[in-house]
Amino acid sequence: MRAETKAGLQALSFVTVMAASAGLWFSLSAGVAPWTLVLMILIALAMAIGVWAS
Amino acid sequence: MLLDWLLALFPILLILLLMIRFRWGAAKAGPAGWFAALCIAVVRFGAGLEVLAVAQAKSLFFSLDVLMITWAAFLLFRVVDEGGAIQVLKEALFRLTTDPGMQALLIAWAFASFLQGVGGYGVPVAVTAPIMIGLGFSPVSAVVLPSLGHGWSVTFGSLAASFQALIAATGIPGGTLARPAGLLLGFACFGCGLAVAHATGGWKAVRRLLPMILLLGGVMAIVQLALAVSGFWNLGATGAGIAGLAVGVVLARYAQRKGARAQAVDGKQLLIAVAGYAMLVLLTLVVQLAGPVKAALSRLVLQAPFPEVRTALGYFTAAEVGRKIPLLSHAGAILAYTSLLTFVLYRRVGLYTPGAARRILAGTTRRMLPSSLGIASMVAMALVMSHAGMTDVLARGLAASVGRAFPVVSPWIGALGAFMTGSNTNSNVVFALLQSRTAELLGYPVALILAAQTAGAAIGSVVAPTKVVVGASTAGKGGEEGGIVGRLLGYVGLLILAISLVVWVMALLSGSSSAGGS
After folding, report:
1. Sign of CA dihedral B126, B127, B128, B130
2. B223 near B239, Cβ under 8 Å?
3. A24–B369: do the CB atoms touch at under 8 Å?
4. Which of A28, A32, A45 to mutate to test the interface with B (most CBs of B within 10 A)?
5. Is the minimum CB–CB distance between B35 and chain A shorter than 8 Å?
6. CA-CA distance, B96 to A43, in Å (whole number)?
7. Three-state SS for B69?
8. Are B56 and A19 in contact (CB under 8 A)?
9. 3-state DSSP helix/strand/coil % of chain B, to nearest 5
């Protein structure tokens, strides 16, 4: 994998984890919603991408 | 129940296994530990979606608190290094003394501690190892000496990122933790100086350099402690390093008069080189001490309330207001202001070549991005474990098994965490809650046990494979990490043992004093 691609995927992974965590924070005010699960899955996927790119 | 205890321990063991046996970095091992914690929390500890969501959302604030400092600290280092200032500092120290013992103490102890204060993340060894080789030390010694020398300054180094992580992970005010942490690390400072002298020339060197070690160690330990208890913990290691260098330079010059004459150092060049760090000290003092400035910058705060959550097994986490991050007066923000001002100054005096800004930003991003995902995932893992009751199960098991010997074991837990994750910060994030909960259960002072955690982690981090790899590669000894770790292990083991004994005595004293007072 090219260094630029690797760095790009790591950046995407990190930003997605942080943004989805922020999304969870907003979602908590409305209690557990269907998209709470979607956000948790998104975080897991983003972390998996980060592991793959590292 | 043993099975619950083992399952609660599994995510930590998994990270340990992946990092040590399979040589995974924090960016790979952290998410794996997080995923394992998540699965175990759901399947065995009854954590529902709301528990996991609250833990994950809280981790955002905890991570931001640490990452703002780590990114900005490395940015400042890149701004200064790109202008050639680190090279100037290197040369100035190179010319100061010809005595190998003095060189080792000045460069591998005082200068490496200063670099830990302002940079961290492997910078002390990476910068000083080539200087040591240039001075005639063997490549292995060039890695071993600064590794040992900077250990005591890790917690309050990197603008106190590890100490900030300890505060963030436990919610205990820095003012409460600063004194015991400063005392234990001050004690470790002498141990690091002795270790550097011994590794340089055996007991003969220790005896010859003992007055210098006592004087320099005393100055650095007191300055760090004083800064930490005054609330300036983000300048603790930096201030101690500067004070140590100042005293060390005077002592080296005095000693040099008796021997060969040292080469002169360009004062103006040196002044410009240290301007960035001098500006950091100045800005920190202004923001902390000037009331109106502090008030104006503290208006923009990031903070959020979180609801109470309960697992299916009944483990309860109360509603709370999450971590408070004052965005404009945060240590990370002060570092960012300093980086910007230093960049402008260095550009005005013509220290940069075209494209410097791009190189600085690219270098910072390249270096910090992988460790950021590692930190974010490990913080999330620690919070999932604590919200699911896994940390509580671990703490209760630990309290039952080691009992009254816990203060002696506590620094070793911190060291284990740092060894496995390569970082004092990560160790504090992973183990601080476990340590504080266990201390509460056993009735030991929580602040002392957390100080033991971070002191053990600081010393343990120097022998972490991930750090040793960085040092070995800069010394051109990639592939010989095993030999370096072998030389470091004995010293590190003795230092942590000494810290354990001090913690044990302090715990006994605090126990008897509280018993007397009640």
Report:
1. positive
2. yes
3. no
4. A28
5. yes
6. 53
7. helix
8. no
9. 80, 0, 15
Closest among B84, B66, B71, B85 to B277, alpha carbons compared = B85
Query: Any chain A CB within 8 A of the CB of B212?
Result: no
* Of the partner residues A28, A47, A54, the one whose CB lies closest to the CB of residue B53: A28
Contact of B14 with chain A, judged by CB distance below 8 Å, is answered with: no
Q: Could you report the per-residue pLDDT of B207-248, keeping only the tens digit for each?
A: 999 999 999 999 999 999 999 999 989 889 989 999 998 999
d(CA B152, CA B244): 13
The span from the CA of B201 to the CA of B30, in Å, is: 40
H-run or E-run covering B262: none
Contact across the interface for A54 and B304, Cβ inside 8 Å: no
Is pTM, for the whole model, over 0.80?
no
Dihedral sign, CA of B417, B423, B424, B430? negative
Query: Which residues partner with B301 through β-bridges?
Result: B326
Query: For residue B309, which phi and psi values (nearest 5 degrees)?
Result: -135, 155
Q: Which residues of A10-41 are buried (b: 16+ CB within 10 A; e: fewer)?
A: bbebbebbbebbbbbbebbeeeeeeebeebbe
Taking an 8 Å cut-off on Cβ atoms, the answer to whether A24 and B53 are in contact is: yes
Q: Which of B289, B286, B232, B270 is nearest to B117 (CA)?
A: B232
Residue B502, both tokens:
């001090």
For β-strands B305-306 and B320-321, DSSP reports them as antiparallel
Contact A50 B31 (CB under 8 A): yes
- Mean pLDDT is highest, among B222-236, B253-267, B268-282, B386-400, for B222-236
Q: Which of B46-55, B121-130, B440-449 has the lowest mean pLDDT?
A: B121-130
